[in-house]
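=== Given protein ===
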Amino acid sequence: MRWRRGLQVMTRRRGEVQIGTDPRWAVRVSGLDRAEAHMLATLTDLEEVPFEGLALRHGVEEVRARELFRLLEEARVLAPAPVHRRGTDRTPVPARLGDDLQVHSLLARDADGAALLGARARRTVGIEGLGRTGAVVASTLAAAGVGALVLDDPRAVGVQEPGVGGITERDVDQPRETVVARVVTDVAPGITTRTGTWADGAPDVVVLVDSYATDPERARTRLESGMAVLPVVVREADAVVGPFVVPRGAPCLRCVGLHHADADPDWPVLVAQLCSRGRRSPAPQVSVLAHLVGAFAASQVLAVLDGEVPATAGASYEFSLPQPIGRRREWSEHPGCECADHVPA
């Protein structure tokens, strides 16, 4: 058995120990004598848990030690050795991902955070729109261990963009995709970057960062090419993330557009104007909103890459200044959209 590294062990009242601070797995062990409490306190220094040796060292009966370790295993404080943990096929986790490894080893049922990070290193994410928000998405994904990024935005860095996402004053007037490629390489040496093309293969996920509205045709093209799509829309003083859409999944972005059109028949006309305007004169990307929204969007991409269901599946989150706390809005399949016909019952 292995100790889940990073768990804090604290002494409570006499004969009681608390392991962990996160309510999802924190546990209190009571009815301990002094030797038993001291034995559990030493677990923070271990990875493998040789309970027979620990019991002998601390003067705890082996039967009692087995009982305590069984309780800790049931509480997910201890975890079994992961399958294929050792071997030449295991790529060492870079030192810069040490914190990610520790936390994901706590989150993973088998405590094998290295397997999750290894899988991320084999995935590719595309980001279209590399202003402040897109730069934060890119740098966060790179820092989290994603192996390859396809960066698409040839527009020049504006004078108002430095200070967020690794963009600096010296980057002004340089192509955004070139600048962000340099930023993510600084963050994650060894990451693969491509700019402006899917010629070497479509990414697993593409993040579309737009001003005022998502271009429905561009989103449709990406979905038809087999990419999962996460739209991020920056507006006048807020931003919207989601819904996350997978190919042949529902509800899709057309469903969202049809729901908007039900509420406002002029919606298609407005979207066309907003997309055109956003390309000519992008929405302002305030630093605090760019950091928050970019990080949240990256978390949704990582959820998908890690095999989880993202919070933005069938939902969008709206972050409004001056205090941008995400407000969830759920979306349903629209009866006028054919995407529902593609979803298995």
